[in-house]
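Exercise 7. Given the components listed, write out the predicted structure of the assembled complex. Treat all entries as one system.
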Amino acid sequence: MNSAETGNIGEASPARWSDVIGGAVIRAIGFFCFWLALTRGDPGDLGPGLIAAAAATWASLKLLPAEQWGFRPIKFAGFALHFFHQSIVAGVDVALRALHPRLPLQPGFVTYQAQLPPGTKRNTFCAIMSLMPGTLPCGTSGDGSLAIHCLDVTQPVVEQLSMEETLCMGALGSAKSDA
Amino acid sequence: MSLVMDILTICAVSAGALFFLAGTVGLLRFPDTLTRLHALTKVDNLGLGLIVLGLLPQTSSLLAVKLVIVWLLVQLSGAVVTQLIAGAVRQHGADG
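Answer.
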């Protein structure tokens, strides 16, 4: 009944050492590129940049340990496009409701049993959901289901969330076969 | 070509400003904290995205990268902080 406790679909398997080091190198390169963009690649700033990138990598590995994500670039690109489209729909939807003379709102909570296990992947899903039309995750209920605040509970919110989660799992590689 | 880019800039930045205006109207008109969070995050994200998109043709490539980074960081912080505020409101009420 409680899928959050019994179902381990997409549970991150313990990362191997080679994966950890590979992940750390990718993160370090990312942070260093960020530094280069901020400082216009000024040679005098390269030393502090290396130190900052190393410190940022250490902090990010502490706060967000490396997991095997089974990342799929093509599906992810498709999902990113879908996300852009949905954020435009979300912005237009809320803007029209705000400007509408009668203020058409039916706010309320909907509970949703997420298939993703608690952890980084579910948090990613929640972050994406908070930018999607009409939904705003507000934390976990006692039974492990997600409480979602909706602007309009008459919309088919649960169906929409379920569809988005499937897309999200496909893009981030959370289906069982990816492990 | 630069005329086309200027027109794109004017359209995108104006649309972005309109969305910021709509988000602020929502902030003032919506009835409670949680509905106001919807107004702030979703509409302002779109507004900022449009303003960044409009400014891209007017800048050097390095500055363009910085603008996109600003937009991504605002999206990330918006998505995370909104959920924290919403979770706190659900647990303790809007005043607690």
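Discussion: Residues 73-178 of chain A form one domain. The two ends of chain A are 24 Å apart (CA to CA).
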